[in-house]
């Protein structure tokens, strides 16, 4: 649409567009004076509580059930410890491959946590699996670092003049 609108073939301008209307307009009661101010109270859906009728701050139409979902199972503490120790092993790789020991501890904690999760149905299976993967990866990197250190140490001592 262009502004201002162009005149039609007979020289007249088209009427302006209709103003926008609201999506919902509440119905007008047949006799508003019988309700005093406002509209009649809205009906409450069956099954919902009535709130506190003596309180001026109660909203009975908006109450909801107390527990709509079942609570999540608790997370296994060993699974969290497994991932934390395995991640600490990553930082320990810089300290003469001490991280390899932390990686082994983290992986073993992860295996124990997975066994306990299967037995009890607790949460944290993903944390335990991540602890196992990171722990054994850190242990492998530490073993490669120790092997490379020993290799270079033995090669430098066997040089001939």
From TrEMBL:
The residue ranges crossing the membrane are: 80-113, 125-153
User: Which ranges are annotated Pro residues under compositional bias?
Assistant: 1-32
The DUF4190 domain is annotated at 78-144
Classification via InterPro entries: DUF4190 (IPR025241)
The organism's place on the tree of life at top rank: Bacteria
Query: Would I find Membrane among this entry's keywords?
Result: yes
Q: Which UniProt keywords apply?
A: Membrane, Transmembrane, Transmembrane helix
Any one Pfam family here would be DUF4190
- UniProt-annotated stretches for the region Disordered: 1-43
Q: What is this protein called?
A: DUF4190 domain-containing protein
**Native species:** Actinoplanes nipponensis
């Amino acid at each position: 649409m262009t502004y201002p609108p162009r005149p039609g073939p007979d020289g007249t301008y088209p009427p302006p567009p209709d103003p926008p209307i609201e999506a919902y307009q509440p119905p007008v009661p047949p006799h508003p004076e019988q309700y005093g101010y406002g509209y009649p109270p809205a009906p409450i859906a069956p099954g919902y509580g009535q709130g506190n009728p003596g309180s001026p701050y109660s909203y009975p139409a908006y109450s909801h059930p107390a527990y709509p979902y079942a609570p999540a199972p608790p997370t296994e503490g060993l699974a969290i410890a497994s991932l934390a120790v395995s991640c600490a092993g990553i930082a320990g790789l810089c300290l003469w491959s001490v991280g390899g020991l932390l990686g082994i501890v983290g992986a073993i904690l992860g295996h124990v946590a997975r066994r306990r999760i299967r037995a009890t149905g607790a949460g944290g299976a993903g944390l335990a699996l991540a602890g196992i993967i990171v722990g054994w990866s850190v242990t492998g990197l530490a073993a490669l670092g120790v092997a490379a250190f020993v290799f270079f140490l033995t090669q430098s001592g066997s040089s001939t003049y």
